[in-house]
Specification:
By secondary structure, this protein is of the alpha/beta class. 37% of the residues lie in helices and 8% in strands. A 6-stranded parallel β-sheet has the order 1-5-6-4-3-2, sandwiched between helices. Helix 6 (193-204) links the parallel strand 3 (181-186) and strand 4 (209-215). Helix 1 crosses helix 3 and helix 1 runs parallel beside helix 11. The chain starts with 6 loop residues before the first strand and ends in a 30-residue tail after the last helix.
């Protein structure tokens, strides 16, 4: 008889693995005597760091929304409202820094990029297509990477980053480097053939790859029930012979614990691991999407009852792992950082037209600027 499914983040299964893989849960000493033990071997300072990334993600996206409504954002704005916890919690489990782990985000994993070292001013410049943006105005939103910091720019075609990150993980294995690759995929992206080809290759080659499958209830406007007949995304990958667990994606510490276990397992040479995070996309596909397809009251219910930031704050305060003054100090510092970053770049110029082909082609053609373009 198959082992029962355990949902990471539930009282019965918060620190146990699925698929006949068992992770021993042991009490971790609290940072201060008399306080509840902090789970997942985290320390109080790390909890505050996680909170900062959660608040930074949300505040930065709120600023981008304001800029979008002022027509200062070029192209679409893709929010992660309601999903910040799984992005921050998963990326926080990686080893960060030069020549360490690698991560590939999707369009809603701004929090993951911030954890890996992306700066708010880079995000702002990128969304506004400024000349000093990471892609010099040639790409938009968070379509950029930094190989030194360990994150790879995503490909727009959903599913394609699975084989790309499998290739990066293969390079780690061939060079015998104790490094791990982590990649995100949505419930819609898991319906592409490229996803299945990539994860099968990673499974067969036993690559150090961790795949985060985001069950956020909407593939643009398509609900899961019209995509697949199983209840969990994890069920879709068990045929590839890899561990697949389901996690409460709005429980930041549960996501961190599950990812930390998967990353350590991959680093030991045990192969690919799949983590499904159950969460909810509270904004449309992009800011222009009016979400007319969402049942009435559903977004409000998730906002009230299952917001990842609110849940994490409640956990910190109830367990005396942080004081309200600690969180207020972080909130104020984050707002100041976003304000200063906005002021520094909002009036910067776009790239000059004659630079459009440079850094795109190896030897771009050039011509003198037409006289009337300078008038």
């Amino acid at each position: 008889m198959p082992a029962p499914r355990l949902i990471w983040g539930s009282p019965q299964a918060k620190f146990h693995a699925h698929c006949n893989l068992h992770m021993t849960s042991r009490p971790v000493p609290a940072t201060e005597p008399g306080l509840p033990a902090i789970p997942a071997e985290l320390e109080r300072g790390q909890l505050l760091e996680i909170y900062r990334y959660l608040r930074l993600t949300r505040t930065l996206e709120e600023r981008l929304t304001a800029l979008y409504r002022q027509t200062k954002v070029i192209g679409g704005l893709f929010r992660s409202l309601g999903q910040e916890g799984e992005s921050v919690g998963s990326a926080f489990a990686l080893e960060r820094g030069r020549h360490r782990d690698f991560m590939s985000p999707l369009i809603r994993n701004l929090g993951s990029m911030l954890v890996m070292g992306a700066q708010p001013i880079q995000i702002l410049r990128q969304y506004m297509a400024k000349a000093e943006s990471p892609t010099r105005g040639r790409e938009l939103n968070i379509h950029f990477g930094d190989l030194d910091l360990g994150y790879v720019g995503q490909i727009s075609q959903l599913g394609d980053m699975i084989p790309v990150m499998a290739g990066i993980a293969l390079s780690f294995k061939l060079r015998r480097e104790p490094r791990v690759a982590l990649v995100y995929i949505g419930d819609g992206g898991m319906s592409t053939g490229t996803f299945h080809e990539g994860i099968n290759f990673a499974a067969v080659q036993r690559l150090p790859l961790v795949v985060i499958g985001e069950y956020n209830h909407w593939a643009y406007s398509t609900p899961p029930g019209k995509q697949f007949a199983v209840e969990h995304l994890a069920d879709r990958v068990q045929g590839y012979g890899i561990p697949a667990v389901t996690v409460d994606g709005n429980d930041v510490l549960a996501v961190y614990a599950a990812t930390k276990h998967a990353v350590e397992r991959a680093r030991r040479g045990k192969g690919t691991h799949f983590i499904e995070v159950k969460t909810y996309r509270r904004k449309g596909h992009a800011e222009h999407d009016d979400q007319h397809y969402v049942p009435a009251g559903e977004i409000e219910r998730w906002a009230k009852e299952n917001d990842p930031v609110d849940r994490f704050v409640k956990l910190l305060l109830q367990n005396d792992w942080a004081e309200q003054s600690d969180l207020t100090t972080i909130d104020d510092a984050v707002k100041d950082e976003i304000d200063r970053a906005t002021d520094a770049c909002v009036n910067e110029p776009p790239p000059a037209p004659e630079t459009a082909l440079s850094e795109v082609y190896a030897s771009p053609v050039s011509a003198e600027r037409l006289w009337f373009r300078a008038v």
